[in-house]
């Protein structure tokens, strides 16, 4: 018989697991890892209303994507164009970034799988006599290690030609030159920290769902058990 067990700690762990997976996925797909040096407005990009040139803009560069601005001759304004600069894996600008993409992708896939499974932990608390919380916590710890490897290797690719074109000639491994770090990089770091917090907190979720009070509720014949 399936017993639906909901506790504050198990629900918090489930929500954190989902948030972490989405945060890492969004960061990976974003082009805002590096914010390039300011690009001056061209003579064609003149504001017809004020007669002055538009402010310089900052292009952004991700692991496999980029955002830049293009001029529309008919509209006399600039729009931001975002998309992948690499049509396939081999066209990613640096071997270090290729390795980063692999490690991050593996870590994110594990996190997404755990997030999916975490939704069902209200009904299923064990698998093959193993606590599903402990198994998921172990997987989250492994995913965190993959994420750390990816984030360590990513700055090593700042010396590639693509990064130099955005960050200037002084850009090199672990030195961003004229670039600054974008929100996606910080989000990936924050998500990695939360991944390990989730891995540790999974043990608390397991304790909460297997407590004596839960067992008493089960023995009383209750199928829906909600505890603080």
Automatic annotation (TrEMBL):
Instruction: Tell me if Nucleus is a UniProt keyword of this record.
Output: no
Membrane topology, record value: Multi-pass membrane protein
Keywords for this entry?
A: Fertilization, Membrane, Transmembrane, Transmembrane helix
Family of this protein: Belongs to the LHFP family.
| Gene Ontology terms: biological process | single fertilization
Compartments, record wording: Membrane
Q: Which GO terms describe its cellular component?
A: membrane
- What is the designated name of this protein? LHPL2 protein
Q: List the Gene3D superfamilies.
A: 1.20.140.150
Q: Which organism is it from?
A: Trogon melanurus
Is Membrane given among the entry's keywords? yes
Q: Which residue ranges run through the membrane? A: 12-35, 96-120, 132-154, 183-203
């Amino acid at each position: 018989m399936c017993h639906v067990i909901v506790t504050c700690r198990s629900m918090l762990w489930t929500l954190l697991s989902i948030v972490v997976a989405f945060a890492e996925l969004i960061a990976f797909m974003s082009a805002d890892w590096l914010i390039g040096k300011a690009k001056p407005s061209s003579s064609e990009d003149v504001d017809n209303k004020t007669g002055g040139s538009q402010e310089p803009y900052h292009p952004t560069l991700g692991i496999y994507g980029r955002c830049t601005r293009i001029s529309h001759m008919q509209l006399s304004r600039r729009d931001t164009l975002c998309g992948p600069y690499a049509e396939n894996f081999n066209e990613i600008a640096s071997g270090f970034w290729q390795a980063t993409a692999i490690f991050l992708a593996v870590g994110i896939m594990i996190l997404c799988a755990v997030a999916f499974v975490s939704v069902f932990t209200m009904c299923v608390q064990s698998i093959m006599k193993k606590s599903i919380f402990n198994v998921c916590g172990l997987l989250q710890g492994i995913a965190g290690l993959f994420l750390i490897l990816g984030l360590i290797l990513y700055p090593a690719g700042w010396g590639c030609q693509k990064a130099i074109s955005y960050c200037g000639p002084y850009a090199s491994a672990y030195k961003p030159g004229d670039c600054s770090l974008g929100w996606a990089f910080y989000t990936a770091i924050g998500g990695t920290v939360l991944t390990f917090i989730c891995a540790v907190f999974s043990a608390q979720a397991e304790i909460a769902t297997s407590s004596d009070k839960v067992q008493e509720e089960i023995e009383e014949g209750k199928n829906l058990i909600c505890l603080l």
